[in-house]
Amino acid sequence: MVTMAVAGVSGRMGRMLVDRIDATEGATLAAVLERPGHDWIDADLGTALGGRPRGLVVGSDTDAALDAAEVLVDFTAPAATVAFAQAAARLGRGHVIGTTGFAPGDIEAIDAAAAAGATIVRAGNMSLGVNLLARVVEQVARALGEGFDIEIVEAHHRHKVDAPSGTALMLGEAAARGRGVSLDAVADRGRDGMTGARRPGAIGFAAIRGGDIVGEHEVMFAGEGETIALSHRATDRGLFARGAVRAALWAADRPAGHYDMMDVLGLN
Ligand SMILES: NC(=O)c1ccc[n+]([C@@H]2O[C@H](COP(=O)([O-])OP(=O)(O)OC[C@H]3O[C@@H](n4cnc5c(N)ncnc54)[C@H](O)[C@@H]3O)[C@@H](O)[C@H]2O)c1
Ligand SMILES: O=C(O)C1=N[C@H](C(=O)O)CCC1
Predict the structure, then answer these.
(1) What is the pTM of this model?
(2) Is the ipTM of this complex over 0.95?
């Protein structure tokens, strides 16, 4: 049995993770965390969720949660995730990271935590479909070259706080790898006003926010006289929870390191 803790348990993904862990053979929910000061701190999880008490109290003490659990599953916010990774390194635990919106320094800190003893699985999207799509995007970008302009369009619900989405950046990284360039050098992340003509070789991003859209991504390769579009649409965020719990089961007996969903799915 793999013991798991969920961070950000009251959030959209936190609630999905509780249901998924409860439904997964071989996984058990051992601790749940929320941010200090949150209404749910010290409440019974079952009661906070509107059901019967289940004898699991929502806390904000990371070390206590990691004493109880082998793997922390974390869909929260960048600063919290960096601190969780450092705690996972100190205590030699697994850490599945679904959080997006990181600054470059955050990724360096997460790399350092993996080097210092945490078994980290991080992916901007935990679904099988998006990870397969990233593989296809890399191959198409490699085959087509710069005669085709790459544009990535994503759409998410009105509450999402980061843009471009973690998935869009993952797909951009895949396209850049296919072209043999660094995404940082070619990304065009926002156009407004007199932008001038498109920069040759740019990988463009556009973000739509509205309603309850779970997550939609399209990678467009626009050439002369033809356009290829590769897309993915998530219709249920339970999809991401399934991938995250699969990653947590996988991480439980892996050595420390920084892995991604391609490793979990056996696609690397
Ligand atoms: N990788 C994926 O497949 C995937 C899928 C969905 C969402 N996400 C990402 O997951 C993150 C969360 O998404 P959401 O829609 O659930 O957001 P949300 O705002 O509904 O939930 C985030 C939760 O984290 C909690 N939190 C913040 N700081 C904390 C701390 N220090 N300790 C404990 N809890 C803390 C918040 O109180 C909140 O309950 C976002 O970055 C989102 O982009 C990733
Ligand atoms: O709802 C979100 O927030 C999502 N975030 C991830 C991203 O940034 O790509 C995955 C899709 C849903």
Answers:
(1) 0.98
(2) yes
